[in-house]
UniProtKB/TrEMBL annotation:
SUPFAM superfamilies: alpha/beta-Hydrolases. It comes from Paenibacillus cisolokensis. It holds the Pfam family Esterase. This is Esterase.
Amino acid sequence: MVPYVESRYPVRRSPEYRLLAGDSLGATASLHTAISYPELFRRIMSLSGAYYPESQRIVAQYADLSALQLYMIVGLQETSFQTDTGVYDFVELNRTTSRLLKERGADVFYEEKDGKHQWGFWQQEIPDALRYFMAG
């Protein structure tokens, strides 16, 4: 996808300008993609990431994630969210993942605010997240 976009549009070609964004499992996939391909991606907008224990184990395997910059938001009403695999406390999953990332040198903006695990909450957060990345 990156070569396709770069061959057709006047975009910046450096990984520090590329942004992966996602909500729930999309945020998790964005983080794993950036960790796997730091030469391509370094910025992640994480909206209520589904950072299950396996994702946390993957993050914990890395000693240095200082190339990553994340904007993480999670809703305070996400403490018992029902998924196909069980009920999870997304607030605690995001807190723990944020801590793991910071311990490995990642630049992390993390915030918890009133909100549920749904598009209406995330949609309201996108402008602030984009301003965060545009400022830094």
